[in-house]
Amino acid sequence: MNDARQDLIHIQELVGTAFSATGSLVALTDGGQMNPNKLQKTLEQTMDYFERSTLELRQLCERYAPGVGGFMHKPILSAVEVAGSVEEFGYGWLHIMLHTLLPHCRYQTPGWLSDTIRRLLDGYEACGKRLPFYSRALLVIDEHTGIEGRHIFDQDNKGWKAVSNAIKGRLIPDDDQHTLAVTLLSTRTEGEERCHITLLPIEDAHDFFSAHSSDYASGDFYSGQWC
Question: How far is CA 62 from the centre of its chain?
């Protein structure tokens, strides 16, 4: 139980640091005008503290879950179904669907998003399915959202790098510009907000965009097409 106690103390320290960071946010709003850049940076630092606490808690749930045990084993309360899903086209394109949009990422890459994608891939392999590996690939990230539901419009402020970080060394050898091409798309929708991530061989880029832009595929490109 000593190890468990040390783990819980560590979590308490992380949460305490995160809670203290909220005091800095309150101080910024106390008496006078806020500096927007300072506010944004403090918000993201606070978010990072809470995210790291969440990642540590995820690991603890796996390590100490009754009846499971063992670090990196599947927890009793799996978040995979809540977070999203992984499927594959019959011709080798991998599709990851997230039940969330890309987070704001002006100062640092969101660790929770990389961790979530890795866990979705773990769940896919745990079902006995094999993940593809591409020597050179195209990564397409397509956010489905309405204007009212989105407040981050500049692509360079979105945390898309968390996706390439999660697949580097697992689905592709590296994420440098000669190995991975990246395309960021947005699709206006009135339905539920989703982030569709597709990874495919670079030589299939023409086929992907032809299918994606065709009239018959518009709006239903990611529905009912997976094998």
Answer: 19
Output the CA–CA distances (angstroms, integers) from residue 218 to 120, 140, 143, 212, in the order listed.
26, 16, 14, 7
List, run by run, the mean pLDDT of 10-residue segments along the chain (227 residues). Answer: 76 82 75 72 78 72 55 43 79 90 72 87 92 97 76 74 95 96 89 89 94 62 55
CB 194 within 8 A of CB 144: yes
**DSSP tally for the chain: helices H, then strands E:** 6, 5
Burial 55-84 (b: 16+ CB within 10 A, else e): bbebebebbbeeeeeeeeeebeeeebeebb
Does this model's pTM top 0.70?
A: no
CA distance 26 to 22: 6
CB–CB of 106/149 below 8 Å?
no
Residue 182 to residue 40: CA distance in whole angstroms: 26
List the structure tokens of 208. 């992907």
Q: Which two tokens stand for residue 155?
A: 């692509």
**Cα–Cα distance, 62 to 41 (Å, whole number):** 32
- Classified as helix, coil or strand, 36 is helix
If DSSP codes are grouped into helix, strand and coil, which group holds residue 197? strand
Dihedral, CA atoms, 58, 59, 60, 65, nearest 10 degrees? 80
